[in-house]
Amino acid sequence: MNIANLPTDKHDFKSIERLSCLEESEVISLIPKLLEWLQDMNWPIATAVADLLQTYKTQTAPHVQAVFLLREDTEWISNILNHLMDEWDSGIISTLSSGLHSLAQASDIYADSDLLAVELLWKHRLIEKDAVSILLETKMSDTEGLINPFTAEQKALYQTMENERLHILDTDITQIKNHLLNYSDETHGQKWELENLLRRHEEIAATITRMME
After folding, report:
1. Phi, psi torsion values for 125, nearest 5 degrees
2. pLDDT number for residue 2
3. CA atoms of 48 and 14, how far apart (whole Å)
4. CA distances from 163 to 167, 179, 184 (A)
5. Secondary structure class of 171 (helix, strand, coil)
6. Which residues, at least 6 apart from 157, have a Cβ–Cβ distance to it below 8 Å?
7. What pLDDT shows up at residue 1?
């Protein structure tokens, strides 16, 4: 493995140009390290790396399976599903079927890797429609169960906090620190948790609509 050809930072587009000119065998040996650049799609180089890896779909698939098995970084997995595997054909996707089924059965309330896995499985007809319905209904029910304990008073407080935050962003950003100090870390954490659960609830509903059409 010639690591000298790997990107050295998130702006190293010249490395992609070098890699595109290398022999296939040289690039293949670097695939595990290249995949790491998909851990954050906000990195400028991430999309360029994903485009490069599209040339090596078959060789990349086993390394994707290894990332699935780690199950530690769901944002990374979501990026792979959404920005890399979305363009793969059914033959390659089928080799990752077991890993995708495991992801689909899990619950990822932060990065929604489970929902992306369900959609890929359905897109390539690697799961039955009845199984999809059961999975999504279960995920919806679980999410509603996590939302229900929040009281009306909490929800009203969190809305007030959000209105204050948006007002500060529109008027005087220097006051954001004072806004943060006005409420406890626990309250901010609960607000963020509820907002994420509501977002996930909407995403599950949208997934159901897309897949049941």
Report:
1. 55, 50
2. 63
3. 11
4. 6, 11, 17
5. helix
6. 187, 191
7. 58
CA 85 to chain centre: 12
Residue 113, SS3?
helix
Of residues 122, 114, 79, 88, the one with CA closest to residue 210: 122
Task: Report the alpha-carbon angle 20-25-27, nearest 5.
Answer: 40
Query: Contact 30/19 with Cβ under 8 angstroms?
Result: yes
3-state class percentages of the chain: helix first, strand second, coil last, to nearest 5: 75, 0, 25
Overall pTM > 0.70:
yes
What are the distances in angstroms from CA 30 to CA 6, 25, 157?
A: 7, 9, 50
Give the mean pLDDT per block of 10 residues along the chain (213 residues). 82 93 92 96 96 96 94 92 95 97 95 96 95 96 97 97 95 92 95 97 94 77
Query: What would the DSSP string read from start to end of 64-102?
Result: HHHHHHH-S-HHHHHHHHHHTGGG--HHHHHTTHHHHHH
